[in-house]
């Protein structure tokens, strides 16, 4: 089997909280606390979870938008978490990002032509200005925008069109991996479908790998090959799509899936409603981090942290329940 | 029994680029104790409709016309003073953003108590006692402590519970919930929807639920009204609408929603797209507002706006081409 495109080993990111007058940090936010996964070439891995679970922090760590606290990020056999800025710059081309909000992630003063030309120029991907122009024009075709609109400014486009520009900009660098951080969450239903379809087409066309960060499980199911569920900075379950949606193993995954409203009034379900809120990542619960909300909690969960263990082919879950006989 | 009857509601805004017809002649009703969902995408006018019912649109730049009959009285004709007696008392509202719709410098208890003191003339102590009851009702742990806390000390889900407590404090006849769970995580959304349903039963209020989430609609609503570009394009009982959508826009919307479990049934096909985008409301649209994106559209659609027609019992659609069943008189 080929080596994975991206490997993340025991990634940790803790943010210090500036405490007293002298700026000494008194406590830390354990945003990501020991996360490992791999993404193969051309594969989509989705990170799902609720606000504050650390899924965006993982995405940003891979993009190296900040230094990580511990662990390794390996792209195509090369560690990128400790590279010097200079060497990192060349690798940046290979990992690109599409953010949630297409209004704030485009420079309002640049014309679309310049937005798309910038990465091509910066990474030296065009030899002449004619080649640059043709590449920019081809990108517009790729994301199904009219070439006529190249000289417009971002504010002249709708939200969905802007997201297409963001995708075109990511593609301009000819990356191997695109991090989509809630890339379709801010869009309306009908536009969301357009962008989801576009992303899937592009993945087939260019063999892109994707890290798809989202809280929308129905979209994830539609898009992904594998899913990793995060809760309070940890992966609690990771499995291929069919398995996680058919037989979720972790109680949190079950609760997440059952909480999604079904767009079919003939389906009457009894959602598994969790008590309370997600605890603070500044002071995460002892033992299993989910124990404060878990309906199946028992003593061991409060003291001992469960490890991520393989439960079925490719399906990993971190729960003490799996050491007990199956109970339904 | 009709609780609310809205007729030919129009809300327009004067802008430098022209008049924006945010709501363009919408009529509907809500019965006592009923849950009506208003669905549509951003800019379809669903929130402006809600704000207009409550007369929360500043005039100018806004302008509201039509009639909004609540228990026989036209709210649009009332004085500001009379309207104030209705807001928060007979009709109350829950907004999307629990962060910005609570006052950050007042305790939760004061904010719940405010409506009670204003509308029911309770004194400070009685209002606080009632506020604690309300917090208990909406499932906030340690209500006696929480009542003295400020909004920033609460999580998003708890703030939305507080908003619901405020809105239900005076046992309103009608609750308008504008995207009440959109800003919340799914597990919290499930809690809040459950809570709203329980309380609605207990208080016996009618609910207008405004949302873009068809999943939430399917779970909560009894009747659904679909809006597009400031107009009502379809209305039907919820099961009927999902089983048999008549308007091409509704059909497109339902096709565009990914469904959980689709990968298991092998139904994970390409999502249906609605090509193009919502028309500019600052220009007058002579024909059907959806004509520009509709695969069935003809010259007739572009020139003549279709009227809302009862296509089968209690199922209305505004489309020249929607099939019509024979309806026995």
Description:
The complex is a heterodimer of chains A (328) and B (329). Helix content of chain A is 30%, strand content 23%. Chain A is an alpha/beta fold. In chain A, strands 6-7-8-3-9-10-12-11 form an eight-stranded mixed beta sheet, with helices on both faces. Chain A has a four-stranded antiparallel beta sheet with strand order 2-1-4-5. In chain A, helix 3 runs parallel beside helix 5, helix 4 crosses helix 5 and helix 5 (159-172) packs parallel to helix 6 (189-206). The two termini of chain A are 37 Å apart. Chain B has 329 residues and is α/β, with parallel strands linked by helices. Chain B is built from eleven helices and twelve strands. Chain B has helices spanning 46-53, 80-86, 108-120, 124-137, 143-146, 156-168, 186-203, 214-220, 238-243, 248-256, 299-303, and strands at 2-15, 18-31, 35-39, 62-70, 73-74, 91-94, 174-178, 206-211, 223-228, 231-237, 309-312, 315-317. Chain B has an eight-stranded mixed beta sheet, sandwiched between helices. Chain B has a four-stranded antiparallel beta sheet with strand order 2-1-4-5. In chain B, helix 7 (186-203) links the parallel strand 7 and strand 8. In chain B, helix 3 (108-120) crosses helix 4, helix 3 runs parallel beside helix 6 and helix 6 packs parallel to helix 7. The radius of gyration of chain B is 21 Å and the shape is globular. The two termini of chain B are 22 Å apart. Chains A and B meet through helix 5, helix 6, helix 7, helix 8 and helix 9 of A and helix 6, helix 7, helix 8, helix 9 and helix 10 of B.
């Amino acid at each position: 089997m080929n080596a994975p495109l991206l490997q993340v080993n025991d990634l940790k990111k803790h943010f210090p909280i500036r405490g007293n007058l002298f700026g000494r940090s008194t406590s830390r936010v354990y945003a990501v606390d020991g996360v490992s996964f791999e993404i193969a070439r051309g594969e989509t891995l989705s990170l799902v979870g609720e606000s504050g679970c650390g899924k965006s922090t993982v995405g940003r760590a891979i993009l190296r938008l900040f230094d990580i606290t511990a662990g390794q990020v390996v792209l195509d056999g090369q560690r990128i978490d400790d590279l010097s800025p200079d060497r990192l710059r060349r690798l940046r081309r290979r990992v690109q990002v599409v953010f949630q909000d297409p209004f704030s992630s485009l420079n309002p003063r640049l014309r679309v032509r310049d937005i798309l030309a910038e990465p091509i120029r910066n990474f030296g991907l065009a030899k002449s200005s004619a080649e640059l122009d043709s590449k920019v024009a081809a990108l517009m075709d790729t994301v199904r925008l009219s070439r006529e609109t190249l000289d417009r400014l971002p504010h002249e486009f709708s939200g969905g069109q802007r997201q297409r520009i963001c995708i075109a900009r990511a593609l301009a660098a000819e990356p191997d991996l695109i991090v989509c951080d809630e890339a379709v969450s801010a869009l309306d239903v009908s536009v969301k479908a357009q962008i989801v379809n576009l992303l899937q087409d592009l993945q087939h066309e260019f063999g892109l790998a994707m890290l798809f960060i989202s809280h929308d499980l129905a979209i994830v199911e539609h898009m992904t090959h594998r899913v990793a569920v995060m809760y309070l900075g940890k992966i609690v379950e990771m499995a291929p799509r069919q398995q996680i949606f058919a037989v979720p193993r972790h109680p949190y995954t079950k609760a997440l899936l059952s909480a999604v409203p079904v767009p079919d009034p003939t389906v009457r379900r009894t959602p598994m409603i969790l008590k309370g809120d997600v605890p603070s990542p500044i002071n995460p619960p002892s033992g299993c981090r989910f124990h404060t909300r878990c309906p199946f909690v028992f003593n061991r969960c409060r003291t001992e942290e469960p490890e991520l263990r393989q439960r079925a082919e490719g399906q990993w879950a971190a729960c003490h329940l799996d050491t007990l006989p199956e109970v339904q | 029994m009709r609780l609310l009857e809205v007729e030919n509601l129009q809300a327009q805004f004067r802008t430098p680029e022209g008049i924006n017809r945010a709501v363009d002649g919408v009529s509907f009703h809500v019965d006592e104790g009923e849950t009506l969902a208003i669905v549509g995408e951003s800019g379809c006018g669903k929130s402006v409709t809600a704000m207009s019912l409550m007369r929360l649109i500043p005039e100018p730049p806004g302008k509201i016309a039509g009639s909004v009959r609540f228990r026989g009285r036209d709210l649009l004709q009332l004085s500001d003073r009379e309207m104030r007696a209705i807001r928060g008392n007979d009709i109350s509202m829950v907004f999307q953003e629990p962060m910005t719709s609570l006052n950050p410098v007042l305790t939760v208890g004061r904010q719940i108590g405010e409506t009670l003191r204003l509308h029911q003339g309770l004194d400070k102590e009685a209002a606080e006692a009632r506020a604690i009851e309300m917090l208990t009702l909406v499932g906030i742990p340690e209500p006696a402590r929480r009542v003295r806390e400020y909004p920033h000390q609460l999580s998003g889900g708890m703030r939305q519970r507080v908003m619901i407590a405020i809105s239900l404090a005076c046992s309103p006849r009608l609750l308008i919930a504008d995207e009440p769970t959109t800003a919340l995580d799914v597990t919290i959304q499930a809690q809040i929807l459950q809570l709203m349903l329980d309380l609605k039963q207990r208080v016996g209020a009618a609910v207008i639920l405004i949302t873009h989430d068809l999943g939430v609609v399917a779970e909560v609503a009894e009747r659904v009204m679909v809006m597009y570009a400031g107009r009502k394009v379809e209305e039907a009982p919820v099961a009927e609408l999902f089983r048999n959508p008549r308007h091409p826009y509704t059909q497109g919307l339902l096709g565009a929603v990914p469904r959980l479990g689709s990968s298991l049934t092998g139904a994970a096909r390409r999502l249906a797209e609605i090509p193009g985008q919502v028309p500019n409301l600052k220009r007058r649209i002579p024909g059907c507002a959806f004509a520009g994106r509709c695969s069935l559209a003809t010259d007739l659609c572009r020139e003549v706006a279709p009227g809302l027609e009862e296509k089968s019992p209690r199922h209305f659609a505004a489309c020249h081409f929607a099939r019509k069943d024979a309806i026995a008189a």
